Fold:
Amino acid sequence: MKTKALRLVTLTLAVACLTSLAFSVERQPNAAYRARREALAKKTDGGVVVLFAPVEKDTEIYGFRKEDNFYYLTGYEEPAAALLIAPAVEAKDKTPARPYTEILFLPAHNTVQEKWLGPKLGPDDPDAKQRTGFDRVEVLDKMRDELARLVPSRATVYSDLPDFGETSASPEGLDWLKRANAFLGFVSFKDVKPMLASLRTIKDSGEVDLIRKAVDASAAAHLAAMKAMKPGVNEHEISALMQYEWDKRGCDRPAYAPIVGAGFNSTVLHYSADDATIQNGDIIVIDAAGEYAMYAADITRTLPANGKFTARQREIYDIVLGAQQAAMNAFVSGKSKLVGRDDPDSLFKVAYEYINTHGKDSHGEPLGKYFIHGLGHYIGLNVHDAGDYTIPLAPGMTFTIEPGIYIPEEKLGVRIEDDYWVDPAGKLVKLSGSLPSTAEEVEKAMAGK
Ligand SMILES: [Mn+2]
Structure:
């Protein structure tokens, strides 16, 4: 019954969409994506990039999400496309010169499937080049011949090769191309992800705008949670409220599984059951944020169930906030790093030392051992964004600073997480700075003041 009803809805929506075939997410100008393709081409040292977007299944009922790297390079949101980028090369010996080449390959129209999944852009649609910003848009069937023509006999082909058990749409496509003899010479295959991670480490201003929108919508959701929090409410109700609040402000989905953990659950880092009833005296860790036009926010606040921290909760809260502030104060653009236990430039080390020299557990021991995760991570197309962690934080980078203390035997967990951007002048900008942060501000917001 459920499936039938859902199919009917899908079909109706697909028909409704026919009149308005357009990109549904907010998208950067075509030139932004083109600049990334050209930057990637330069990194390949004469190699060729071949990438495939994931395929949408006819039975898709959870919605299709674009793949980060393919989207980063194309801004193209429909499934099953493929991408070829080849840098310009000078003529050498018998090999002729090749100009910079980029082709977006699209599958031919499938009218039966489009009834179920909605209309798609086709390679023969007259506005395909103008809409996608590509020099050339071709039907996917031509990919083999284009590669056979463009890839020299001793070339490196960069693609999304799976590692650490991750899956990718590219190996299946590459297998088809190899079988069809698209690579005529001695071609070696390398993973393109490290080069893309390096590019994605620095955000352009359009990306920062989208992250800001994700952060603003998520901060509004946190403020709503502060006002709705009280003993007797279920964790799930808070999570549902927040998802409504950021979706209302244009987000497409949660950027990650929301965490609303009360009491002991506040000490469980990736608690996601979110189904306990909040008790008077509990402290609640809320780590939840939305995704806007593919870009993630990541914000955590910690609240007292009844609107007033106990003396002990407040003591731990202030230490976590102090650690975050210490890391912010220590920040120097072009020098500071997010990670590293012993590196003198590590902000983690600053936060850890602050926590370890303030307060004690119930056995009189220092609190450092209760800070059990890293200080932060890049944010972008992924909430734990691809990026190079070996280089110092510098202009264009966006990341979290999120110290925490988790003491299970006291059922007391506190995490405070904000989102930051290093501006072109090297100044650290707290993007989520409008959201109440000190214990006093949080108590005031919960009281509706
Ligand atoms: Mn985080």
In short: Confidence is low (pLDDT under 50) at residues 1-22. The radius of gyration is 25 Å. The pocket of manganese (II) ion is lined by residues 298, 377, 400, 402, 417 (CB under 6 Å). The longest helix spans residues 205-228.
